[in-house]
Design goal:
9 strands, single chain, 6 helices, alpha+beta, about 240 residues, 9-stranded mixed sheet, binds zinc ion
Length: about 240
């Protein structure tokens, strides 16, 4: 593990501001709800608590260590910092995206799982669990979220929102968008009756084929838009 230099931290802060604006534009959160973080070596850059994404500047992004101690924080780090740090501790995540998006919240209030309504769910690791309700900002929520993430790259938080992670911020964010889209499609399907879903064997076949085709890697070997390792295909493999 390394200690990032000022340039790497500044770049992370700028990316977090850019993606915070996307959260609002894409309807994944309103006001200052939801939060984003990026791991930089043995530090984590995370959005601050209570600042509207419209007003957010790179200098407002807090930097904490992996135990949550503030390293450089002009503003209060996100109230969900314990949940982000728990995900970094439990996985090899490079970025974490927590949303308050309407389709997953609606689903969380009525279901225990988002089933495999479409094969793209393989890039989230399979059917997405709904973690039991625990108060925001608590260590209990961090534990419930990481438990629901076991073997997955996304989890839904009952009566609250969703959490996704990826190797890069781009990948984590794309997964948050995919999760919201899948929840929307599932709700539409239920208008027709009882939706058919894909079996474990069918999902395993998709994952094997995506791996065979090298989804998530580019022919040129170029890095993804985020400058990190590769992009997430519709059915990408990965961690
Ligand atoms: Zn939240």
């Amino acid at each position: 593990m390394y200690r990032p230099d000022a340039g790497e931290l500044h770049a992370a802060r700028e990316r977090l501001v850019t993606y915070s604006a996307r959260l609002l534009a894409d309807g994944l959160a309103v006001g200052s709800a939801g939060n984003l973080s990026m791991r930089c070596g043995d530090l984590v850059a995370i959005t601050p608590s209570g600042i509207s994404y419209d007003d957010l500047r790179p200098a407002d992004i807090a930097v904490v260590d992996l135990a949550g101690a503030e390293v450089d924080a002009a503003e209060v780090p996100s109230t969900e910092t314990p949940m982000h740090l728990a995900v970094y501790s439990a996985t090899r995540a490079g970025a974490v995206v927590h949303t308050h998006s309407p389709e997953v919240i609606a689903l969380s209030a009525a279901r225990d799982e988002l089933p495999a309504i479409h094969y793209a769910i393989t890039s989230l690791g399979g059917p997405v669990r709904v973690a039991p309700y625990v108060r925001f900002g608590s260590d209990g929520l961090a534990a419930a979220a990481t438990q629901a993430l076991a073997g997955r790259r996304a989890a839904i938080l009952r009566n609250h929102g969703a959490i996704c992670y990826g190797r890069s911020l781009d990948e984590a964010y794309e997964r948050a968008l995919l999760l919201e889209w899948l929840a929307h499609v599932y709700r539409l399907a239920q208008a027709y009756g009882h939706p058919k879903t894909l079996s474990e064997a069918e999902l395993a076949e998709v994952t094997a084929e995506a791996t065979r085709r090298g989804y998530g890697t580019r022919r040129s070997g170029a890095a993804g838009r985020s400058g990190a390792a590769g992009r997430s295909g519709a059915a990408g493999g990965g961690q």
